[in-house]
Design goal:
This protein has about 475 residues and is an alpha/beta fold. Helices cover about 35% and strands about 20% of the residues. Helix 6 runs antiparallel to helix 12 and helix 10 packs across helix 12.
Amino acid sequence: MSKISRRDFIRGSMAAGVTMALLPPHSRVRGANDDIRVAIVGIRSKGRAHIGDFLAVPGVRVVALCDADRNILDREVNKFMRRDEKVDAYVDYRKLLDDKSIDAVVTATPNHWHTLIAVWACQAGKDVYVEKPVSHEIWEGRKIVEAARKYKRIVQAGTQNRSDVGLREAIPYIQQGNLGKVLWVRGLCYNRRDSIGKVDGPQPIPESVDYNLWCGPADMKPLMRRSLHYDWHWVWNSGNGDIGNQGAHEMDVSRWALDQKGLAPSVISLGGRLGYDDDAETANTQIVFFDYKPAPLIFELRGLPSQKDGKSMDDYRGTRVGNCIQCEDGYFAGGRGGGWAYDNDGNKIKQFKGDGGGGHQANFINAMRSRKVKDLHADIEEGHISATLSHMANISYRLGLKKSADEIKETIKDNKEMTDAYERLLAHLEANEIDLTKTPLAVGPMLTMDTKKEVFVGEHSDSANMYLKRNYREPFVVPDKV
């Protein structure tokens, strides 16, 4: 056996050290003691929460912030300054990507920016935590998955229910047959949403906002609502309604409970925007049926209170925002923060105590360190499939025709679970004094999905496929080939 001198060993070690130093940060496997440098993009609300959440994870440094609103950016940078901590500030996300020392990008921007931020970050060699829904349209979501795989990036979807300790116990309990065969799953989003008001013309853009950068891939339209921020959820150019907002969480848990890895083969949706006349475009009342086999997924959205001018909201088996999983011998009802298994008489069987998914950011960081996609609780593929369900629902709704209550009842009469949801919805609307003869609901067509190609096929597919991909605004274009 040949002997290696101390001098040769040191020389070899120095050479290896130089080689490692020359490698870009994203190509190294990080050890437990290496700090991970994170940038957060979109910091008005959820992004602001992410700052604290990531700073609480050991070995993580938040080193850069980005927002198209200078006032919001300054607000958060000043907090770092008061703690005597350095943080870089960017209005233009593209400039942030030039910093090769940043290991991960976290995005909590409006939905229309999610995909492009994620794809560009992957191309720049950075891992990504992308908020729900991960996409604004079906086509672009698949592009994040392709970019993640091509560039070997760790990409986590912000569906933190996947990290809730109660749900991580409850879902296997159900799938192991402890309540018998699953018969159906309901996603519930009974979430109060007030009117956003109505304006009589274009509104001024706040002076602190770079509106070109705020719009990014979306059409740069005049602002036709009172508030630029948050109310973007309720217009199609930038948002996906509450079914793609809060409902994205319950949609994801529903599919998780069904143990369905892919898209539903068909979808039908009905609904409307009821209770007030405002500048919002998306539905605040909606029922969706996904024809998964052998058990379907039914989604129910209500933005109005339990009765006109009331403060409380309806619930379904005690759950207002969450899921109900019906099995042969009982059911589960709950959501983020846990829930209960019941027998069919409503007697409690077992409690699952949740924590709200507070470990989701730490799970992302742990997967970054291991470089193993399987360590993620919500890999981007899961995020893409769940977001696509929301998009499928909205596409059916947007193709819908307004019909009388009796016509809708006749249309869905052969669908037992959708009929049950519809009859309860009619009672809810009556309690809110909604006159459906004046503001009728729209019922969309049953759309068939090619679950492999992720395009609609068959009747109404030409119209439905027009919603798969937006016309991007140069230079903010999600590329065909990532």
